[in-house]
Amino acid sequence: MFFNGKISFFCPIDVSFAALFIVKNKEKICIYEYKKIKIMNFNMKKEITYEDYSKIQIVVGTVLKVSKNEKARKPSLVIEVDFGSEIGVRKSSAQITHYYNSDNLVGKQVIGVCNFPKKNIAGIVSEVLILGAIEKDGKVVLLHPSQKTENGLEIA
Predict the structure, then answer these.
(1) What is the pTM of this model?
(2) CA torsion sign, 6 to 11 to 16 to 19?
(3) Of residues 59, 155, 144, the one with CA closest to residue 105
(4) For residue 30, which phi and psi values (nearest 5 degrees)?
(5) 138 pLDDT more than 70
(6) CA distance 116 to 129
(7) CA 35/CA 46 separation, integer angstroms
(8) Among the CATH numbers 3.40.50.2300, 3.30.1360.120, 2.40.50.140, 3.40.50.850, which is that of 52-142?
(9) What does the alpha-carbon distance between residue 110 and residue 112 come to, in Å, rounded to a whole number?
(10) Domain range list for the chain
(11) What is the pLDDT at residue 106?
């Protein structure tokens, strides 16, 4: 509870953090922080178990071939990746044209989820989800090992 001389209210945030801002405007800052925390919690995905995570097959592979996906509404590339002898070569369509093309992708190692069901994306049967970090403006930065590794190695 905070008391400003006129009204008191409950503000469910860390008091030591909130106290730094109470001097400015007790009611508005506390309410703002409350909304900010609610938004942060709302954006969190549902918690999963280690058993759930163990079902996901995340693997290292090397890009063999890259071409434009001409049928896609948004600029996309068709990528063929070698995930080693056990999984083989898989194809994916990805909207990664801001930073990537055939010149800088062929031979590059990437990380992919290999056990999702196949999905038709603009006429391409996508067999793998290539992982990347999505920047605020929607551009994708691909995840890759920091050094060359064997294709097919699982990510833990």
Answers:
(1) 0.71
(2) negative
(3) 144
(4) -65, -40
(5) yes
(6) 8
(7) 20
(8) 2.40.50.140
(9) 7
(10) 2-43, 52-142
(11) 98
Residue count of the chain, please give it. Answer: 156
Name the one residue in this structure whose structure tokens are 């050094």: 147
**Collapsing DSSP states into helix, strand and coil, what is residue 119?**
strand
pLDDT for position 96? 95
- DSSP per residue over 38-95, as a string? HHHHHHSPPP--HHHHHT--EEEEEEEEEEE-TT-SS--EEEEEE-HHHH-EEEEEE-
**8-67 residue pLDDT tens:** 444 444 443 443 333 344 444 444 444 444 444 446 788 999 999 999 999 999 999 999
Distance (Å, whole) CA 127 – CA 35: 40
